[in-house]
Amino acid sequence: MALINSVILWLIKKRFHQIELFMKYPHEVQGELFKKLLNTAKDTEWGKRYDFKSISTYEEFRNRIPVNDYDSIKGDIELLMKGKQNILWPTDTRLFAKSAGTTNDKSKFIPVSPESIEECHYKGGKDMLSIYCHYHTGALMFDGRGVAMGGSHTIREVDNEEYYIGDLSALIIQKLPFWAEFIRVPKLKLALMDEWEEKIEKMAHATIPHNVTSLSGVPSWTLLLLNHILEITGKENILEVWPNLEVFFHGGVNFGPYRQQFESLIPSAKMQYRNTYSASEGFFGIQEGQEADDLLLMLDYGIFYEFIPVSEIDNDQPKAIPLTEVEKDINYAMVITTNAGLWRYLIGDTVKFTSTNPFRIKITGRTKSFINAFGEELIVDNAEKALYIATTKCNAIINDYTAAPVYLEGKNNAAHEWLIEFTKEPENLEFFTETLDNALKSLNSDYEAKRYHDMILRKPIVRKLPPKTFYKWMKMRGKLGGQNKVPRLANDRHYVDEILKIIE
């Protein structure tokens, strides 16, 4: 393994010079990519529909092709899944990433072309390692094995061709190059199991005997595995099982609320935590250093970026801007055009730029994950920061949470209701609630204005949930494992009311 570690380190460090190139020349790289995407897809159905051949400037592109969401391209994706090709992208597309969190809990199916799997998702994974090893020169992670918390997929046959449909993580694991099997556990068959509870049990037993040096996955489901390993082994912490564990690559949700739990399970000052921004639609960002929590925007993955100021997102014709026009500290909805045939696709995430030289971003929430029932415009970024302040001051640890509005009723003013499952409860819930409320006021002037003298919003209602409530709810919805995660904020009470019924 030491020889393998040395060879892999040498290979992935070479890539860092290319990363430095797009950091230095971001607009040139995006400009060339813009031309390549249009030229490659000019003879597809979409290319003919919008006459890609005649588009020579960004302004023509922006004026001719509308901003799309999933509903506007769903019909074309369904045709792709039935075997028709050359609609959105010229190369045959037989991988579809099943993504949760859509309207009414319906799934969406994102096409993953051969180019996007190689030039985006795999490249993102390799760059994650390259950046980590560049900034962490003592890395020994390839001396051992890596555990990845992947999802599952199904295989559908259309005209004697195999089509893979499932979690993006499962599609990536299924198509990994042969050499990757030498450095990861467990075996492919187990990693792709779809029965999540049985999968956790078998993964724990299969990985315990190995020298595991790295973890990757969504924090909530990774915690589930780690806690089960401690139950099986009777150990106090994970380092007693895997003494050489050095890094956790995470994504999918904000890591802040989970950090204390991981630090408790892995009590090592040397343990590294690295954030990534990867979704079914593409791999977008990678954390560079241990301290900074913003993400380097990856510009040479076959993705052309545009951004819509969130203040304009509800306009009939919101105007997107290219990377050349973005500014720091403005909340933007991200729009992408990709080498999988997503054209001016509104991904649903909101970001802010923390730097424009090079371009670094911070995920602030979702275009549909907020509370704005009373003009308070509370976004996930506000919620996460406020909860961090409250848990720090109250010496508490949160496992999971969600929040929703409580509407005006009779003489009762409106409020926000927070359902929180604590790993370590605050000694005084009233003080925790007050601290959370004050933190939200300090972070969001609109919320502060609505809380003035309780005129519109009264103090938040915080409810402690019994252990595993969110787990039971996610299981009830068929949303265990993979890319599924607890919705943080909702502008209605659908999720909250469902959860409250469970604890009644």
Estimated structural class: alpha/beta
Q: Write down the Rg.
A: 23 Å
What does the oligomeric state look like here? single chain
Quickly count the domains. 2
* Number of alpha- plus pi-helical segments: 17
* Helical content (DSSP H or I, runs of 4+): 25-40%
Largest sheet: 12 strands, mixed
Description:
The protein has two domains: 1-30 and 74-303, Rossmann fold, CATH 3.40.50; 370-503, 2-Layer Sandwich (GMP Synthetase, Chain A, domain 3). It is α/β, with parallel strands linked by helices and 504 residues long. It is built from 17 helices and 21 strands. It is globular.
What's the SSE blueprint?
Elements: H1 2-14, H2 16-24, H3 26-40, H4 45-49, H5 58-64, H6 70-81, E1 95-99, E2 108-112, H7 114-135, E3 145-148, E4 153-158, E5 161-166, H8 168-174, E6 184-185, H9 188-191, H10 196-207, E7 212-217, H11 219-233, E8 247-250, H12 256-265, E9 272-279, E10 282-286, E11 295-297, E12 303-309, E13 321-322, E14 332-338, E15 345-356, E16 359-366, E17 370-371, E18 378-379, H13 380-394, E19 397-406, E20 415-424, H14 429-443, H15 445-451, E21 461-464, H16 469-476, H17 494-503
Parallel strand pairs: 1-5, 3-6, 3-7, 7-8, 8-9, 20-21
Antiparallel strand pairs: 1-2, 4-5, 9-10, 10-11, 11-16, 12-13, 12-14, 14-15, 15-16, 17-18, 19-20
Helix pairs in contact: 1-7, 2-3, 10-11, 11-12, 13-14, 14-15, 16-17
